[in-house]
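Entry:
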Amino acid sequence: MTDAAGAKPEIALLGAQRPDVVAALERSFVLHRIYDAPDPLAALAAVGPRLRGAASHGMAGISRAQLALMPALEICAINGVGLETTDLDACRARGIVVTTAPVLYDDVADLAIALALAACRQIARADRFVRAGRWGRERLPLGRKFSGMRAGIVGLGRIGTEVARRLEAFRTTIAYADPVPRDVPYRHYPDAIALAADSDILFLCAAGGARGTRPPIIGRAALDALGPRGVFVNVSRGWIVDQAALVAALGESRLGAAGLDVFDDEPNVPAELLVLDNVVLTPHIASATEETMRAMGECVVGNLQSWFAGKGALTPVAA
C-alpha cells in the first residue's frame, strides 16, 4: 500500500500488538514501535510529523499529548472496545477517526458466566483442595446454587446484554441498572445500590470511563447492599470499583464471594485477595481466545488498510 508519492504510509504503534498483527501491518505500512521506546513521547516527537495513522489498544489508547506530536494524523485503530484512555474529544476536534474492534462481546460474556459459576461453586478452591491431597481427609464447604439466582447487571450495553442472554438459560431473575432504560423484559433500577439490594449476584459490565473522572460505580454501599451471601463479578474495569472497599468486604465476609478479571492497578493485585478462598482471580483475559484475538487483530489491520485505500474506516466510533 503506497500513497500518491509511492511511499508506504507511516504508522505509530502506541500500544503493543500481537506478532501476527504487526506482520500484517508491516506489509502495508512503515511502523514505528513508539510504545517500546525508553521515552515514548520523545520517540514520537522524532517521527510525529510524518505519521498519518496509529494503532493502539484499549488500555493504552491515544492521549492529547500524543496527538499534539502527530499533526498529520488521520486515523487511530484501537485493538479493543475500551475508550477510557483515548481522548475522543481531541480526536473529534481534529477530525481524526477512531476505530475499535467490536468482536469480543461473546467472549467477555462467556467469562462473566464462568467467573460466576467458579465463585458460586468454588471451582478454583476445589481445584486447590484436590491438588493439596485434602479430598477424603476433609470436607469442602458447600457452595451456592447459581441456577435460579436473582442476577443484577450494572450496564446493559453490548456486553451486559450478552450476559443477560446467557443468564436466561440458568433461569435467573434478571434486572439491571443503566443510565438509559432499555426495551428489554428485565426490571430497571435507578442505580447500582438499589439493584444490589435485590440481587444475589451482581455483574459489572458498565463502560469504564476515564480513570479518576467520576466516583466508583461500585463502592461500599453497593457491596453492603449485596451482602454477606452476595456474589460480585467484574469484567469491566478495575478502577470503577472501590477496590479497598471490595477487599475489605471480602476479607470481613460482608460480601460472600467475587469473580474478578480486572483490577485497579493491573497487573498488580492486592496481596489480601491472593489468600482469600472466596474470590476467583483471572488476569484480564475476558477477550483472550484464539478466535477473538485473531478477529480483533483483523479489525485493526482492516481499518487501517481500508482507510488508506480511500474506502473509509470499517468500524469507526460514532461521532
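Residues 290-308 form the longest helix (19 residues).
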